[in-house]
Design goal:
Elements: E1 7-15, H1 19-30, E2 35-39, H2 46-51, E3 56-57, E4 66-67, H3 68-80, E5 85-88, E6 92-98, E7 101-106, E8 111-119, E9 125-128, E10 142-143, E11 156-160, H4 164-173, E12 179-183, H5 193-200, E13 205-207, E14 210-216, E15 227-232, E16 238-241, E17 244-247, E18 251-254, E19 265-266, E20 269-271, E21 283-285, E22 290-291, H6 299-317
Parallel strand pairs: 1-2, 1-8, 2-5, 8-21, 10-17, 11-12, 11-17, 12-13, 20-22
Antiparallel strand pairs: 3-4, 6-7, 7-8, 9-18, 14-15, 15-16, 19-20
Helix pairs in contact: 1-3, 1-6, 4-5
């Protein structure tokens, strides 16, 4: 059966429900705009929700430290004041213009006509890099992300990778799991040095110049991981107990259908000017997805870009509006 075609009208459509998109949603409501928010993931929060909800974030203004899921919860509550219409688990596939609007089509047949659109798609759609030895083991003791630490309590955990996620998860699982082993194919790491130092001084065993070459269930018949085989360069393979394996090998990201819209892209990022305008009329962008001279990819920066994009989009939607709306504290 063909999908039902729905035609929606709104003032502003935001593509991407991560922190920047959620803040842009709130700010659109502050500007008095009707707003809709679309995301290809089934939950709000983007990468934070999907990849590191338990991770502590230290560079958001006003919070010495805040857990990822708590930051998202606050942003969702704040965005609710705009009474947005959410389109989750949907992908924006097409774009067209007329004289005073932009129309975005979604993969379920929905058509959203808006006065302007803001792309806050982060890194775009992402998929984890596979662990060759883990083929067929996903959901049977191997995972790519650690959204919750509780399932790892009392287990022997093997983490494969040398980046920020691998070291963050090793650090957080160390007091929860029975044992944590981190395996990396080089003796140099891509993670933040502070986190590396914390892991190296903990009880986590770090095995370098090595690869996980097999996942094993020892013939028990229960179909889940019970051991891993680790091969260190120039040495015979060794086996370690493991009831959980985390393949933290990074991910491949792309902007998907957005790249077919004629939007100017530079190394998988959308080029914008100081007003967060793209080269497409009535289309703006904010957050990690953007590129311009001096760009810094921080959540804090994305919040400022979101406000800039909304304020300039408000003028595109209504030319009589002002870019600067006044302070949110005025009149309270």
């Amino acid at each position: 059966m063909a999908p039902e075609v729905r035609e929606i009208e709104t003032d502003l459509l935001i593509i991407g429900a991560g922190p920047s998109g959620l803040y842009a949603t709130y700010y659109a409501g502050f500007r008095g705009l009707r707003v809709a928010l679309v995301d290809s993931l089934p939950e709000l929060g983007g990468q934070v929700t999907a990849m590191y909800p338990e991770k502590m974030i230290f560079d958001v203004a006003g919070f010495p430290a805040i857990k990822g899921r708590d930051l998202v919860a606050g942003l969702v509550e704040q965005a609710a004041s705009a009474h947005p219409e959410y389109f989750l688990d949907r992908t924006a596939t097409g774009l067209s213009h007329d004289e005073d609007s932009v129309t975005i089509t979604l993969d379920d047949g929905t058509s959203v006509r808006a006065g302007a659109a803001i792309i806050t798609a982060g890194i775009g759609k992402f998929s984890p890099r596979p662990l060759p030895a883990g083929d067929g083991w996903v959901g049977r003791g191997m995972e790519f992300f650690v959204p919750s630490f509780a399932p790892y309590a009392g287990k022997d955990v093997v983490i494969v990778g040398g980046g920020d996620s691998a070291f963050d998860w090793a650090l957080h699982l160390e007091p929860v799991a029975r044992s944590v082993t981190l395996v990396h194919r080089r003796d140099a790491f891509r993670a933040h040095q502070r986190t590396v130092d914390q892991v190296l001084s903990s009880s986590v065993e770090v095995v370098t110049k090595a690869q996980v070459t097999a996942l094993l269930d020892n013939g028990s018949g229960n179909g889940v991981v019970e051991e891993v085989e680790i091969t260190v360069d120039g040495a015979e393979p060794i086996r370690r107990p493991a009831q959980a394996v985390v393949a933290a090998l990074g991910f491949v990201a792309d902007l998907g259908p957005l790249q077919q819209w004629g939007i100017e892209v530079q190394k998988r990022h959308i080029v914008v000017d100081a007003s967060m305008r793209t080269n497409l009329r009535r289309v703006f962008a904010a957050g990690d997805v953007t590129e311009y001279p001096g760009k810094v990819r921080l959540i804090a920066v994305g919040f400022g870009e979101a406000a800039t994009a909304v304020n300039n989009a408000a003028v595109a939607i209504d030319p009589t509006a002002h870019v600067f709306p006044g302070h949110s504290s005025e009149g309270t």
